[in-house]
Amino acid sequence: MTYKPHRGGFIEYSGISSHARCIDLQPIGVGSSRAENAAKLKPIPPAFVCFTYLACGCKGRSVGHKHDGGLTMQRAVAVVLGVAASLSSTLAYGGALRHLDLLVGFGSTNDAGIYVVNLSTGEIKGLLSGRGMKPSWPPDPSRGSGPALSTLPGIVTTRDGRIFASATMGAQPAIVRIDPATGNRSQVAGGWPSVYGSAGALCLLDQKTLLAGAMVSAGLPSFTKLGAVYRVDLASGGATLENGGSLFDGPAFGNPMSIVALGRNLVALSDLSSYGNSGPAVFSLDRLLGSHSILSVPFNDPVFRFSVEGGVASEIPTSVSPAGFGTGPVCSDTAYRMANVSGQLYEVESSFSQGLGSGIIRIDVGSGDRELVFGTGLDSQGHVVESPPISAPSGFSTSDPSVLAESPDGRMLIGEWAPFGRVLAFDLSTRTVQIIANFNLYFGTSVIPAMRSMAIYTNCPADINLDGFADDADFTRFVLAYDLLHCADAEMPLPCPSDLNADGLVDDLDFQVFVVGYDALLCE
Predict the structure, then answer these.
(1) Would you place residue 221 in the very low, low, confident or very high pLDDT band (cuts 50, 70, 90)?
(2) Helix (H) or strand (E) holding 285
(3) How many other CB atoms are there within 10 angstroms of residue 38's CB atom?
(4) How far is CA 60 from CA 2, 3, 26, 75, in A?
(5) Which of 154, 109, 103 is nearest to 126 (CA)?
(6) I need a labelling partner for 420 at 20 to 30 A (CA). Which of 231, 350, 371, 442 fits?
């Protein structure tokens, strides 16, 4: 059997392998439409795939076969072996980290540290980088050198095992890359203006591009502070103003605390009130048009925002009524940490300072309407409403969410404020909750720093669906992305996980990387 990627189509197959029952696909020609190609792509039988990559020089020879119920691929071709050698430093970059570890960023007034949790066992493995945040004896020593992590540390990870975090360098914002073997932090980008002198929330757009939030001064009057979002090229370190500041008209966001990609050109931003702003608001950013607008106001009272017109910021913030910016549960305190879970937008809201609890709301990205899915919230009259889990561990009574992330199995990961200090996994369909890890037990005290961010680590690029295996399911996703080619394509899944070499394309070079991971099958 022969196997070869074709631009404009999926894969062209011919012949039969004597070693296995091969995928039965009709030939797919160059220039076929996506719909036509998708119609020709039949489900791939598990544990049966035959490969020959023509570029490897093994034309007409099967290099894949059924083997003890699993999938394997012989590294019999020098080109593939060469690719494996060139990738050795990347694939080994994880050091002591294992595939699908959870990275948890903690922050206090002056310090920040990133810890590692084994998602499968719940073991808290210790400090990855930054200041030791363990207040009990013996304290965790600091780990790694380089720029200090931001006190509100954002974390993003790429499919080839790179870890990036928000930091500060010379009283200016910085994006650092963290070496997981040593915890050392090296600056990748930074230097844009920021009131706080540190990078804010981070959002990975694709494997080479992220968005970073900041609060910038608008000049006179001196107290006018506007939010801004910078686009950062992780390869070159270049940073470009993407939205906000005084260059974009409309009601201004103030202090970006969370940025979530909802599509290639649609981004949600959660804004924390400060410097003349009041009350939480969620903004919708159109990257294609370079515009932004308020999407939802999860607050009963009016919020105040500066506005920009023709490059000039207003001298005082103006009142924005919650009416018209979504209906549903609200809070009396803050609402700023968000996540995209299974394609939907969720945000943490808190009325905890008023003794009314906190919870998680789902925000409709079209209407801004809100639905309480976990914990407690307030209705329009300020009365407490509840949405408890159906099933929870013994002794579980309440929760105070702090930060959200999506688990590889589709559940919502919830990090909590003190005094709870747990990492929870919440199944949105069954409404069951599981305690994954407990930092109170690890730190030995309920007085712990706040969880500020979470990210899934992987050093197994070919495991595109993050299930722990590089197998047929990943192959199916890869060929669909291969047909799209450009990570900038609006139909490309975020954050372009099939771009395995982080060059902005899903092409033959990525296929060579995939071959290596597919051969290994298991991700360790």
Answers:
(1) low
(2) strand 281-286
(3) 12
(4) 5, 9, 18, 16
(5) 103
(6) 371
Integer CA distances (angstroms), 202 to 102, 181, 260, 409, in order: 17, 23, 8, 23
Q: What sign does the CA torsion over 265, 8, 81, 15 have? A: positive
Measure the CA–CA gap between 434 and 192, rounded to whole angstroms: 41
Spatial separation of the C-alpha atoms in residues 347 and 260, rounded to whole Å? 10
* Cβ atoms 45, 55 nearer than 8 A: no
> Cα(143)–Cα(509) distance, rounded to whole angstroms?
35
Instruction: Give the DSSP letter of residue 139.
Output: P
**pLDDT digit string, tens, across residues 120-148:** 999 999 999 999 998 888 888 999 999 99
Contact 251, 226 (CB under 8 A): no
Query: What pLDDT digit, counting tens, does each position of 35-84 carry?
Result: 443 443 333 333 333 343 333 333 222 233 222 333 333 333 333 333 33
Q: d(Cα 100, Cα 467) in Å, to the nearest integer?
A: 9
Q: CA 418 to CA 412: how far, in whole Å?
A: 19
Scan for tokens 């712990």, then name that residue: 448
DSSP 288-343: TTTEEEEEE--BSS-EEE-EEETTEE-SS-EEE-STTS--S-BBSSEEEEEEEETT
φ, ψ dihedrals at 217, nearest 5° = -85, 140
Residue 363 Rama label (left phi>0; alpha psi -120 to 50; beta): beta
Give the residues across from 356 on adjacent strands: none
Structure tokens that stand for 183 in this block: 């915890």
